[in-house]
Structures are given as structure tokens and as C-alpha cells.
Amino acid sequence: MTDNLPDQHRSPTATAATSTRNADEDEEAARRAMGSLSADPVYFELDSATLRPESRDMLAQLATGLRERPLTRVTVSGHTCELGTTEYNIALGHRRAAVVRDYLRNLGVESSQLSIVSFGEERPLSDAHTEDALRRNRRAEFTFSTKEQATR
Questions:
Q1: What gap in Å lies between CA 118 and CA 102, rounded to an integer?
Q2: Per-residue pLDDT reduced to its tens digit, 68-108
Q3: Whole-angstrom Cα Rg for the chain
Q4: Selection from 46, 125, 100, 113 nearest residue 74 by Cα
Q5: Pure H helices in 43-122
Q6: Which run of H or E residues covers position 8?
Q7: What backbone phi and psi angles, to 5 degrees, belong to 32?
Q8: Phi/psi at 79 (nearest 5 deg)?
Q9: Is the dihedral of CA 128, 130, 131, 132 positive or negative?
Q10: d(CA 59, CA 116)
Q11: DSSP assignment, residue 38?
Q12: pLDDT 10s digits, 46-68
């Protein structure tokens, strides 16, 4: 039984197996920790990048989770409805993602954990032309990964 021996007394095969097992266990632990981390979209008013009060509570919970999981990375993607020009919507989506990122930073999340992207009107939740559909498309969403996943 080689698991109780110091490394210098283990065979190279046993040491490699232990290293592989530890890496697999670390990756599984990171996946489990990240798996419990989720966030609903943050919705915005028309032509606005101002956080609503109800979004702030959810972002505070997300910030707590991110501070507890320093290996977790989040990309905040900014989205708009179809109203406005493409250029304007890309800029507005960027402002929306940035305000969410900055709010999380102010709550103590490390800058290295956060990145932003703007999709403007290019990735709508709904293609319908109703007020409800337009409202749901004005949002910031979250994509989570671990540091290890980001470097692969």
C-alpha cells in the first residue's frame, strides 16, 4: 500500500496516479462550487444603463458567491432590444455590462474575476415585437467558468 509512504519512497507510477487523482479532485471541487453559483439576468429600462433596486440585492448575493470562489470567473454580457442603431446598441450593451461589473467590483469582487462583452441587439431572448419581448431583451447576463477552464 503506497499511499501511506512519503513521496520519496513511492514508485513514479504511484506518485503520478496520486497527482492525477488530486488534479481530478480539485477540478471536481471547482465544478461543484461553481455549479451552485448562478444569477438571473439584470434587466434595464429603455435607453438606460442604471441598475434597478431589485437587481442590487441579487448582485450582492452574486458578489458574496464570487468572493467565496476566487477561481470562478464571470463574463457579463450586455444586451439591448432592437430599437436604435447597431452602433448605439453595442455601446449601450457595453455600458450595461460595465455598470454590472463595476457594481460587483464595489462589492469586493476581484477585477481579475470579471470581464464584459456587448452583444447589443444580436442575441435577443425573444424575436417578438411586443413590449414584453423588448423589455426582456434589455438585460445583462452572466456566464461562469473556472480559472482552469479559461486557460485551456
A1: 15
A2: 999 999 999 999 999 999 999 999 999 999 999 999 999 99
A3: 21
A4: 113
A5: 53-68, 86-106
A6: none
A7: -65, -45
A8: -135, 155
A9: negative
A10: 15
A11: -
A12: 999 999 999 999 999 999 999 99
Q: DSSP for 125-138? A: S----SHHHHHHHS
Place of cell 462583452: 117
Q: For cell 441598475, what's the residue?
A: 51
Dig out the grid coordinates for 150 from the structure.
479559461
C-alpha cell at position 93: 450593451
Residue 99 corresponds to which cell in the numbers above? Answer: 455598470
The confidence score (pLDDT) of residue 152 equals 38
Instruction: Give the pTM.
Output: 0.74
Residues above pLDDT 70, as percent of the chain: 72
Q: How far apart are the first and last CA of the chain?
A: 34
